[in-house]
């Protein structure tokens, strides 16, 4: 089955073509038009600017994804004779379904992807699958996941076994999810205020670093000299009985620390490292606790913050120590931050169950919950 995935929930215009067969799904193309450079000067995503960029990008990105997946043919343009790749006309013969992220996200951004999916579904006469963006992040784990530190090749039978505990951490959400089967989600806990990625972005702003903050805070933390003393930040809710998170107090604690310290600008690697460690400690602790409580032998990480090397490494270590019988899956870096291959992958498993939505009924929903 060939699935065209569309993702426009925030500031990345992304389209992917994936092929699914049996219990495996593989991305044939994964095109992302990033708007980071545009939003950087504002220190964060400006929704109206993002939506307008999506409108400009979406069709060229659809074309590129089809071409890269070899679903387009080369034709001669009559006026110039110039050879240019164009999607084949009879595409409905190639694409079996369209999967689109319908939310959560920025409503004006989501609308661009949803309207594009509706139009293509009507024109190509193919069914549509509505995908929750968070579900997409989760399904990045079914695309050549890195299992126990090794990249699993796509031709190896995917051995993910339910139940699975998933830590999904991004700019917009932080969640611990128990999955008992494909499309069966139980949200065990989530952030009560800022998401982990949002906390990284705000910490970066406090430290005078660029947007998006996660990668740059991580790069600064990596510059820390061995043996340097760190100021101590809190580990919010680490000992709380629930599986919920809270990161806004951590950001405020960082603000107070640097306000007290006249030399803070000389110690950015120290503050970045301690902030990253505080977030990592809480995320790792709660994930292990959830896996133990629900007796899960499969643990997964997903979302933009899953690109963080320390989180990947330290969660790997904790699983090895505390749950030596368990497997840890982590998506490849390109499938951690927003992309459409993850939407196509989630779409494949829903399409297999014939869980389609009539294109006339397809709706963007900025606040949609993760439900079965
Ligand atoms: O999943 P994503 O691309 O978009 C949302 O759904 O929000 O995640 C973006 C978030 C940003 O907050 C960004 O700072 C964070 O992921 N991020 C990171 C890293 N790379 C991206 N956070 C920590 N370390 C990283 N290496
Ligand atoms: Zn995302």
What does this structure look like?
β1 (2-7) and β2 form a beta hairpin. This protein has helices spanning 36-40, 47-68, 107-124, 133-139, 196-206, 213-221, 248-260, 268-293, 309-322, 341-352, and strands at 2-7, 12-21, 24-34, 72-76, 83-87, 97-103, 128-132, 146-147, 150-151, 164-169, 174-181, 184-190, 298-302, 327-330. The chain is globular, with a radius of gyration of 21 Å. The protein has 372 residues and is an alpha/beta fold. The two termini are 22 Å apart. It has two domains: 2-145 and 334-361, 2-Layer Sandwich (Nucleotidyltransferase, domain 5), CATH 3.30.420.40; 164-330, Nucleotidyltransferase, domain 5, CATH 3.30.420. The strands form three sheets. A seven-stranded mixed beta sheet has the order 9-8-14-13-10-11-12, sandwiched between helices. It has a five-stranded mixed beta sheet with strand order 3-2-1-6-7, with helices on both faces. Strands 4-5 form a two-stranded antiparallel sheet. α8 (268-293) packs parallel to α9. It contains ten helices and 14 strands. Zinc ion binds at residues 133, 137, 170, 303-304, 338. Zinc ion (ZN) binds at residues 133, 137, 170, 303-304, 338.
Q: Any chance you could write out the topology, listing elements then pairs?
A:
Blueprint: E1 2-7, E2 12-21, E3 24-34, H1 36-40, H2 47-68, E4 72-76, E5 83-87, E6 97-103, H3 107-124, E7 128-132, H4 133-139, E8 146-147, E9 150-151, E10 164-169, E11 174-181, E12 184-190, H5 196-206, H6 213-221, H7 248-260, H8 268-293, E13 298-302, H9 309-322, E14 327-330, H10 341-352
Parallel strand pairs: 1-6, 6-7, 10-13, 13-14
Antiparallel strand pairs: 1-2, 2-3, 4-5, 8-9, 8-14, 10-11, 11-12
5'-O-[(R)-(carboxyoxy)(hydroxy)phosphoryl]adenosine binds next to helix 5 and helix 6.
């Amino acid at each position: 089955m060939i699935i065209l995935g569309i993702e426009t929930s925030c500031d990345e215009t992304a389209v992917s073509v994936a092929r699914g067969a049996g219990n495996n799904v593989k991305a044939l193309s994964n095109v992302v038009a990033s708007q980071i450079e545009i939003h950087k000067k504002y220190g964060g995503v400006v929704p109206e600017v993002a939506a307008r960029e999506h409108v400009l990008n979406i069709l060229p990105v659809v074309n590129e994804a089809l071409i890269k997946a070899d679903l387009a043919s080369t034709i001669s343009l009559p006026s110039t004779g110039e050879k240019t790749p164009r999607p084949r006309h009879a595409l409905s013969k190639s694409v079996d379904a369209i999967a689109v992220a319908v939310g959560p996200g920025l409503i004006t951004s989501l609308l661009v992807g949803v309207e594009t999916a509706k139009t293509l579904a009507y024109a190509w006469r193919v069914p549509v699958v509505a995908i929750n963006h968070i579900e997409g992040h989760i399904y990045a784990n079914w695309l050549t996941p890195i299992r126990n530190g090794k990249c699993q090749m796509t031709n190896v039978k995917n051995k993910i076994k339910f139940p699975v505990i998933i830590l999904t951490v991004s700019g917009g959400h932080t969640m611990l999810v128990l999955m008992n089967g494909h499309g069966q989600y139980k949200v065990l806990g989530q952030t009560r205020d800022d998401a982990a990625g949002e906390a990284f972005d705000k910490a970066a702003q406090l430290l005078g670093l660029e947007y998006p903050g996660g990668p740059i805070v991580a790069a600064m933390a990596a510059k820390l000299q061995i043996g340097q003393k760190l100021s101590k930040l809190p580990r919010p809710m680490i000992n709380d009985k629930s599986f919920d998170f809270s990161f806004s107090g951590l950001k405020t604690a960082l603000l107070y620390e640097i306000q007290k310290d006249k030399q803070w600008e000389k110690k950015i690697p120290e503050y970045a490292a301690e902030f990253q460690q505080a977030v990592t400690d809480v995320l790792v602790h709660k994930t292990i606790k959830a896996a133990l409580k629900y007796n899960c032998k499969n643990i997964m990480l997903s979302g933009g913050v899953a690109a963080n090397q320390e989180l990947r490494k330290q969660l790997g270590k904790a699983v090895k120590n505390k749950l030596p019988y368990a497997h840890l899956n982590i998506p490849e870096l390109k499938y951690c931050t927003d992309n459409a291959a993850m939407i196509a992958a989630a779409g494949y498993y829903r399409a297999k169950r014939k869980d389609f939505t009539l294109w006339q009924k397809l709706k963007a929903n900025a606040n949609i919950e993760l439900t079965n």
